[in-house]
Write a structure and sequence with these properties.
Strand order of the largest sheet: 1-2-3-10-5-8
Order of helices and strands: EEEEEEEEEEHHEH
CATH superfamily: Jelly Rolls
CATH class: Mainly Beta
Helix content: 10-25%
CATH architecture: Sandwich
CATH topology: Jelly Rolls
Number of domains: 1
Structural class: mainly beta
Distance between the termini: 37 Å
Length: 153
């Protein structure tokens, strides 16, 4: 997996791929052993529950819209143009509470097994299946603190 020179056009993914991950659309932009990047469209009221990447640093560049996050136990808010840095082993969750679509560029380093996880998660509808599959691909979802937390998300 070496970086290929050129341009990944807006709306285009590698090999025409777009993944539906729990209602969000992920479009892979580049994949090497060192880095994996993807465009993400997060529709209103979608989220990625708190989780940990034990072997990867993750970044989000908010291209349009705003995001609420839980990062290392703190609630934070990111605006358009902000870069969010999420070091490996730090719990983080991502929430679109705006009522509007949010467009972001995500990337992780190193790539690890995340591309293969996204391939497995494509079109899965049940969150429990996502949570069960993810540890084998180096992503660990955290249990809710209380049952009501799931409803609050």
């Amino acid at each position: 997996m070496s970086l290929q020179p050129g341009i990944q056009r807006r709306g285009e993914g590698i090999d025409g791929v777009h993944w539906n991950i729990m209602g969000q659309v992920y479009t892979p932009k580049s994949v090497t052993e060192d880095c994996f990047s993807w465009h993400a469209l997060l529709p209103p009221e979608t989220f990625v529950p708190p989780h940990i990447h034990p072997t990867q640093d993750e970044y989000i560049l908010v291209q349009s819209g705003e995001l609420d996050l839980v990062l290392g136990g703190e609630e934070i808010h990111a605006n358009q143009g902000d870069l969010i840095c999420m070091p490996r082993a730090i719990p983080h969750g991502i929430f679109n509470n705006t009522g509007h679509d949010v467009n972001c560029l995500f990337w992780v380093t190193p790539t690890g097994k995340l591309v293969n996880l996204f391939r497995k998660l494509h079109n899965l509808a049940r969150p429990d299946e996502v949570v069960a599959l993810s540890p084998a691909y180096e992503v660990n979802f955290l249990p809710p603190k209380r049952a009501a937390d799931v409803m609050d998300l």
